[in-house]
């Protein structure tokens, strides 16, 4: 990603190190925001995404990059934080609407709460998140109604919101885009997708499995966009 130095309004950008959040960072910078990136070590079984987040933040020249540690693995309940198998096939017929086991209970609520807290401290009112309702796995905390409800919570539950400060706005610029469109927009903004990670179940070398939901959506997006995915996969997959 190209280094961008902005003097505009401050924004907190949730940066996981994945394809979507890295694209959102590029979008926020292109819109003139001074980006303060927030990442989480939340007990996920793999940490390669955090290394990718650090790389992208450094290359983009963000104003700050904060890593917070949470123990969501002690709560469990997700294939990303507990000893639960990551699905490697599309859901069976009739089960497409079910929330998959890779859903992390309360994750976006918790992440956005921390983002609001940091935003209030640094004097920001804009928060960027890479949620999507087109090519996604059916997580309830990625829906637009959740985001609008959280904005209201942030306005009611903060000093900034109750003392007449600028109300918090949750920006989700990828909300209604396909993976193909996300990738094309990111490439136009100079995103290096080799610096991103999407896989739910990488091996010890950090190579993507190519079969989980995140890998399938990513590979489909690159294929439809007409580009080859630059990351490494464990097995030969059509890229």
Question: In one word, what is the shape?
Answer: globular
Q: Compute the number of helices.
A: 8
Q: What is the number of domains?
A: 1
Oligomeric category: single chain
H/E series = EHEHEHHEHHEHH
Largest sheet: 5 strands, parallel
Q: Per CATH, what is the topology?
A: Rossmann fold
Number of strands: 5
Strand order of the largest sheet: 3-2-1-4-5
% residues in beta strands: 5-15%
What does this structure look like?
The model has no long low-confidence stretch (mean pLDDT about 90). The longest helix is centred in the middle third of the chain and has 16 residues, at about 105-120. This protein has one domain: 3-Layer(aba) Sandwich (Rossmann fold). The protein has helices at about 20-30, 50-60, 70-75, 105-120, 145-155, 160, 180-190, 215-225; strands spanning about 10-15, 35-40, 65-70, 125-130, 170. α1 packs across α7 (about 180-190) and α7 packs across α8. A five-stranded parallel β-sheet has the order 3-2-1-4-5, with helices on both faces. With about 240 residues, it is α/β, with parallel strands linked by helices. It is built from eight helices and five strands.
């Amino acid at each position: 990603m190209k280094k961008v130095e902005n003097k505009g309004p401050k924004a907190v950008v949730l940066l996981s190190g994945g394809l979507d959040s890295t694209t959102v960072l590029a979008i926020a910078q292109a819109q003139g925001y001074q980006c303060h990136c927030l990442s989480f070590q939340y007990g996920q079984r793999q940490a390669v995404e955090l290394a990718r987040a650090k790389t992208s933040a450094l290359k983009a020249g963000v104003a700050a990059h904060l890593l917070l540690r949470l123990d969501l693995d002690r709560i469990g309940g997700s294939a990303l934080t507990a000893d639960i198998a990551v699905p490697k096939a599309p859901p069976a017929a009739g089960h497409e609407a079910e929330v998959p086991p890779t859903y992390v209970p309360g994750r976006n609520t918790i992440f956005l709460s921390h983002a609001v807290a940091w935003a209030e401290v640094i004097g920001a009112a804009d928060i960027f998140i890479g949620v999507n309702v087109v090519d996604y796995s059916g997580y309830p905390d990625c829906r637009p109604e959740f985001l609008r409800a959280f904005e209201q919570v942030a306005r009611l539950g903060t000093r900034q919101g109750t003392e007449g400060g600028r109300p918090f706005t949750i920006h989700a610029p990828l909300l209604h885009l396909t993976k193909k469109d996300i990738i094309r927009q990111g490439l136009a903004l100079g995103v290096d997708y080799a610096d991103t990670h999407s896989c739910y179940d990488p091996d010890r070398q950090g190579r993507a499995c190519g079969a989980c939901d995140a890998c399938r959506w990513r590979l489909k997006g690159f294929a439809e966009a007409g580009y080859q995915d630059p990351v490494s996969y464990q097995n030969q997959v059509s890229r």
